[in-house]
Design brief:
This is Phosphotransferase. The protein is built from 30 helices and 25 strands. The protein is of the alpha+beta class and 837 residues long. Helix 29 links the parallel strand 22 and strand 23. It is elongated and about 105 Å long. The two termini are 60 Å apart.
Length: 837
Amino acid sequence: MYTERFIHAADTREAVGGKAANLIKLTKWGMPVPDGFVIGRDSFLHFVEVNELDLQSENIQNEITQASIPEEVLTELTSAFLELREKYTALAVRSSSGAEDLEQASFAGQYETYLNVRTVEEFLSRVKGCWASCFENRVQQYTETIEEQVDTLNMGVVVQGLIHSDVSGVIFSQDPVTSNTDHILINASYGLGEAVVSGIVTPDTFVVKRDGRKIEKIIGSKELKIIAGATGTEEMETTKLERDAYCLNDAMISQLVELTLKVERHYQHPVDLEFGIQDQQVYLLQARPITTVTKAAQSIPEARKGFILERKDEDEFWFLMDSRFPDPISPLFASIVTQPFYQGMAKASGELKEPMGFTQMKVHNGYYYGKQIQFEMDPEQLFMENEKLMEDLYPELTNGMYDIVYDHLMPIYRHLDEETSKPFTPAKAKRGLEELAVFFEEVYYWHFIIVLPHASLNIKLEKLFQRLLGSEPAHDLYQSLTGIMNKSLESDRLLWQLSMKVRKEPQLLHAIMNSDEGNVSKALSTFGKGKDFLDRVGKFVKEYGYRCLKAHDFMGETWIENHEHVLEIIKNLIENGHDFDKEFESAVTARIRIHQNFLTAIEDPIEREVFEKCYQMTLDAAVITDDHHFYIDAMFDAKARLYLLQVGELLIQLGVLDDAEDIWFLYKDEIISILDAPGSLMDTVKERKRQYDLQGKIKTPAFFGKPTEEEQSFVEMVFGSLEENKENTANTIKGISASAGVCEGKVKVISGMHEASTFKKGDILVCKSTTPVWTSFFQDARAIIADTGGMLSHSAIIAREYRIPAVLGTKIGTERLKDGDHVIVDGNTGTVTIIEA
């Protein structure tokens, strides 16, 4: 027999393939599996024999699709198809390899799936398509990584009734990101499951304890759904109502958890399930071992123990550093930067006699956690020595910063530029990876030599303000430190000047304003003035373009790589009519007025002089926040990125990767090892990308362990609140009052500069945090609501420069607020009121 119904078929992988074997098992266990049959190995082998096909032929795929199915096989296939079609309006046809869903490799997504198959002709064509897919290049590459040979992959085909899913998704019976055995993870969205499996939508995520108690719900954007059309499948946009609602209710989640545990008990190991729900009935569409959880649960490699948070660490107080690193970080950034970062901090803190010590850092769930380490010295003695050191540094903080930049950092950057431009070999790449770690420690040593005294000076001014004026530092104090040109504002002004030039040139204006996003350069390159303008943009980018779109990582593209980012900002400046000089002049006027009010309010001339001296030092140092970011946090990361991309190109040549950008998903020790013995890591990258996406959706703990009152007080002073404000209600969100003013409007939630085109003038910006490359957002935003940040964060400083209200450190703004929500932002009290959700 060439076909066998699930209920009668043998569940042997060799005869029917992995996917079919699992569906047969589920059917015989009484699980809710759509009825179907399997086309076994014998059908394929007979087909090959009759058509005298050479499986080693370079054109084998085409030969399979063109060959005729033998009459005896054809008759049986047609009969089985028509019998099943009487029960279902359409069928699904999926390949099922003998190597598929193995415990050492899932082969997930490596073979073909055809949905909404309705006719005999289409069915027979799809069967041959499944057979041919065994010989796809991507499958052959994948088999090589697990030491399987193509000619041993016994190809079966699964034919099932198609479930017209209202909702579908995947379930992991053990959290694949955290390896937490007590958590079940569900991803779900509307329509057929291909949208979730292929990753073309952002699904809802549910993390559920095994007892069914929900511990986390994260709504996805669920941009579209795949449905069965008249022929094949169709993509359809979801409605706003569907996007704003969770696609699964509590009762359905409980039912899915119960079914998952039942399946896991039969398999006796963690499972990965695909499901569909039609008319409130749950169907299982696939089951496989969770191949990655086993790997994740293994002990951490020795090379990564220095920066990966271990189970034993969780007994100590480690706090989430989301005010500095709000997004998940890539494996490569974690493995190159983490230890040098805090080692550089420790060295600088030691030299400056920092009373609070330094922060050790480790990674959990892709996020940075910190633990405060204090020096083993008498605290009083440390404080006295620190205070004396700081007093000597305060008058020359800005000059000192620039001396460090030009004397110590620029030579490193020039060296990196030179090395990036030279040919790469495995030996050079390995040497460069080790050298980068050394450079990062040195760069971050100087980083903290700059920023620690600056932070200390700000605290000194705040305390002086409170003593002399009798109140907590208000917005006016921080507003009195604006209107000073820094690298961010300098960059903004030059971009504005470029936009002014475009406004005066009709040909430039027409080319830029009528070009689609990403095609502005192409339009300008077709005429003389356009080429001249591109040259001017190129000169700007050469000096100001070393900044990644994603802060504190190597992943975000830089302006120097793609000038379109700058051209889009210029286009936005033209559209919004922003006048930089007018706005800056207003900020300067406001600063002078506020400062004069302070002096008038201090009656004692001696005290006034003390305040004035401290204020002028702080004002002079106000550029440090943005300028150190420009020269260190942004520039060094960008130059390191460009160097590492060349290592990525080398890995492509060696057959390790197929995209240089995939290098971010490898650890440093993996790259060094693979350079010695090249082999494909494409499957590792694919899995890491999926984990990275999940990390961005799952809410990681605010802290581990139990802090003392002193520890909690210090962390909240420096890094912001550990948890959301307890005064929050269903309609209010409390945060830090970072920039004064009150406004009302609709919110737009933004995750990065790649979403700049969706942000419109007058929107209220809701984000995790901001970086200096978010220029166009600040010019257009009516107000800012951020999950992280404090009074001296970049978000606060730039909000005050642009004189728009800002409520920061909400912890939950991006979670609670959705696009279009109508809110009032009160920057005076740090309150967001939701008028209409």
